[in-house]
């Protein structure tokens, strides 16, 4: 089963460690200043951007009203999903923050930055890390949401992650000292991991801190039991299982999705999706033959919303069926430009040229993840840009707000290390 998501340049073919030919050059490890020590130059930045400067924040007098900002961000989206999105965001401060990356970017644009850039997630909320399947049937833990990805200041991702950990701790019942400790530990793990990666070659740095080393590296041993339980559930969270539960057989022997009010609905009549041919040309070359061999001869398409508080963009999931059974085809999701784009100039970064938003998201994802979805690609459906990826794909996640109070700092250290690894793939040279 695949999912199409409407939606910046990548570094390698899915499933491999080496940069892929034909993709745009990734700044950072690809070049280094000919003269001077990057470490010394980095320390010199402390004069213009002292570390203590990050502790201060004065809200802007013209700061957008939260309700108005949410209403404006819903313009041009599926109106039937707006109440669902608002309801999810209104549940808790932690959930509201997850659905308001653009609103937080307004504040972040008024904070100091070193102007060292990287491919950033743009929405490095603590809930946007999780497990997913790799090509060999194993599980990988990494960032998993790239709708807002752009080349921008690394500080924005780190501050969003630390802030979300404070809110998660409060929701988990932790006291303020514990919440502050989680934020400090997040930044500390980021700093230590980046220092480690800076000493490695580009090849070694890309694949550093394998999942089996992550807990030890980040000193997150209190999370072991939680991660094991989440992993067990993730292995059963497959496209095939979803198809069996969410589709029904039609009179002509095909399959169709069963409507779920407000969240998802089928199109009036079954029809083959128009995106696969173009999408195949954007997926990893090594996987194209496999996708041509799919047994599906009839496809039905389902409009759906994701489970995140920010859910509101159009998404399409296709189910391809044959005499051997049904399986979800590549799903796609539509989306606008990154919510961070209007605020990049204030931080000294260029606004990216307008282009295919699916391509932006896919390339950004490939730059940041250590390994990406086999079917990851982009396409255009009915004139709208989409990202294409596997549906479900053994996904699992830890709910940071449901952790025990003494686990929040462990989660912060683990995600701080993962974020540093993701940024190191494309960090600008000093």
Automatic annotation (TrEMBL):
Source species, domain of life: Bacteria
Region (Disordered): 1-44, 268-287
Protein name from the UniProt record: DUF2252 domain-containing protein
Species for this entry: Streptomyces haneummycinicus
């Amino acid at each position: 089963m695949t999912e199409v998501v409407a939606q910046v340049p990548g570094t390698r073919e899915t499933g491999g460690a080496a940069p892929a030919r034909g993709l745009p050059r990734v700044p950072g490890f690809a070049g280094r200043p000919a003269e001077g020590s990057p470490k010394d130059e980095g320390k010199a930045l402390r004069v213009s951007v002292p570390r203590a400067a990050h502790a201060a924040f004065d809200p802007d007098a013209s700061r957008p009203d939260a309700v108005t900002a949410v209403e404006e961000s819903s313009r041009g989206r599926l109106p039937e999903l707006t109440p669902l999105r608002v309801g999810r965001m209104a549940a808790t401060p932690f959930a509201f923050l997850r659905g308001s990356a653009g609103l937080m970017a307004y504040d972040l644009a008024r904070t100091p930055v070193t102007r060292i850039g990287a491919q950033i997630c743009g929405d490095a909320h603590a809930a946007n890390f999780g497990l997913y399947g790799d090509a060999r049937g194993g599980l990988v833990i990494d960032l998993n949401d790239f709708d807002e990805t752009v080349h921008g200041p690394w500080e924005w991702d780190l501050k969003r992650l630390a802030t979300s950990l404070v809110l998660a701790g409060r929701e988990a019942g932790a006291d303020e000292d514990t919440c502050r400790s989680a934020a400090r530990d997040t930044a500390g793990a980021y700093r230590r991991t980046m220092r480690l990666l800076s000493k490695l070659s580009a090849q070694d740095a890309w694949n550093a801190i394998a999942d089996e080393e992550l807990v030890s590296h980040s000193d997150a041993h209190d999370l072991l039991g939680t991660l094991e339980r989440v992993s067990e559930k993730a292995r059963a969270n497959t496209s095939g299982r979803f198809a069996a539960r969410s589709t029904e057989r039609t009179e002509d022997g095909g399959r169709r999705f069963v409507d779920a009010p407000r969240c998802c609905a089928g199109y009036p009549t079954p029809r083959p999706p128009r995106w696969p041919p173009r999408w195949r040309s954007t997926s990893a070359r090594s996987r194209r033959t496999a996708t041509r061999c799919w047994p599906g001869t009839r496809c039905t398409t389902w409009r759906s919303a994701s489970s995140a508080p920010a859910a509101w963009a159009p998404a399409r999931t296709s189910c391809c069926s044959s005499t051997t059974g049904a399986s979800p085809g590549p799903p796609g999701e539509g989306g606008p430009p990154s919510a961070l784009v209007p605020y990049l100039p204030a931080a000294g970064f260029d606004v990216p040229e307008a282009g295919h938003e699916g391509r932006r998201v896919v390339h950004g994802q490939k730059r940041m993840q250590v390994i990406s979805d086999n079917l990851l690609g982009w396409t255009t459906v009915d004139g709208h840009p989409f990202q294409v990826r596997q549906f479900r794909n053994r996904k699992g996640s830890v709910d940071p707000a449901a952790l025990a109070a003494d686990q929040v700092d462990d989660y912060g250290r683990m995600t701080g290390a993962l974020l540093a690894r993701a940024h190191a793939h494309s960090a600008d040279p000093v």
